[in-house]
Design brief:
353 residues; alpha/beta; Methane Monooxygenase Hydroxylase, Chain G, domain 1; Rossmann fold; 2 domains; four-stranded parallel sheet; 11 helices; 4 strands
Length: 353
Amino acid sequence: MSHYEERIEKDLSKIRQQLALLASQVASALTDAVHALLADDDPLAYATILADNRVNAVSNELDRMCNAFIGVHLPSGGHLRLMSAVIHANVALERVGDYAVTICREAVRLARPEGTMAREIELMAGESRQMLQQAVAAFVEGNADQARATMSIADQVERTFDMAFVDLLAARDDFKVQDLFAYLTVFNSLERVSDQAKNICEDAVYAVTGEGRGPKFHRILFLDEDNSLLGPLAEAIARKNFAQFGEYHSRGRRAGVCTPHTLAALQEVGIDLARHQPQALGRHHQELASYQLIVSLQGPVSSYVEQIPFHTVALEWRLTQSPGENADLRPLTREVSALVNRLMATLRGEESD
């Protein structure tokens, strides 16, 4: 190894050590914040808030080290990717420190959580901490496979959040309004920890392999009265044109029947629903919570769903074309197709006509 290569490796080692130090401080802050909340320990909460100054100082030094490395070594290829990834991971960790501070500020306002609330805070905190720990380890070790595997924990954290949100609403009469918002802030902060851990995993994969973040994958549910035409039409168009970007389903308020005329008319415009079996919408919250978007093509979503999950976006499309029994379905198909295309362009961050 040449003297220049030794110098690069020495500087990279220092940067990795600084990143590990930052991660350790952030993990400790998160642990202390949750403990302060669960134990009603105000002195610990205030000490954790003040300790965030040290986190910020370590983060600032890491940023300086990365910029100095770029300025001195003019890196390219893998080294440049690593610096970019470290800078992004630095931001993610600094934000986790901010979430710990937020939890501490709510902790000094709240009484000690009990029962279900305490158990769900502890569960969600444990999942988020585990994900953060594994994400940082994968990054520091340059283990892309471990990073990819760790990303899946985010789904479990989100399910725990949805469960806590439902329980919080169910018990809303037992809390003051400000306490409800405080608990919601705590749960949201813990979920955001997992989001930042996922970002670190994606940065780790990029640093090792050069693979950027792929297109975001969406789960979308289309609703109509009887699941015999409008919902299945939107589902089929989305699957046909955007299969790689999402998973699409449709349900009805009740299960109707796809008429032979409807099937034949749609076949003429390239939509095959011959194998479609109309299904009624289930009321189970966890099933609905798995969808990022619920789109109604007939009436308000609230008329189908008693409670829209916290992480789900509800949209209502008002169609101008009539889905009559013997109507020409080409105009309707064009209108639904335009709405689906516009939605996917929005989700992908593209301009649409």
